[in-house]
Amino acid sequence: MHDPKNALWSERAPDVYRVRVDTSKGPVVLEVTRALAPRGADRFYHLIETGFYDDSRFFRVIGGRFAQFGIPGNPSIAGVWRNQQFPDDPVRASNMRGTFAYAMTGPGARTTQIYINTGDQPQQDAQGFAPFGHVIEGMGGVDKLYSGYGERSGGGMRAARQARLFEEGNAYLDREFPLLDKLSRALIVHR
Question: What is the pTM of this model?
């Protein structure tokens, strides 16, 4: 199922679905609206279905801006998906507090990394970051995710500072950044 060439990855997601993300700061429920960013919603649905995000870390948390996740803790899975880019969606919603979108280095470069806006960031709209849903429960937990490492624990897709996350996974993060919050499981809870 983690093979990006599997037919599963071309299937359409439901028009609206919910994802429960169990974190070390409590559960967070995300509601995805496919009409906002169909390609992003489809990819996210299947990543959740296959357990892609389970046992990973919120590796980049910048207080008042965003909390980012989406690199698997298992390096063999992370390596397969590292460069599995897919086309952009037009921006149909603004990057406001509680919305979420794919992190990327530029046009056509979305893969698997997601950020949840913990503050309003409308400047992201003009850069092509297309939100595809919003947090409907647990935003207080998102606000409490550990942000003390800032960019040091996995920031900078554009600065190419994520290599060790892909190569060593949770072993690296747990050793070097032990205070990072965990994403233990993500699952579809409403279709």
Answer: 0.95
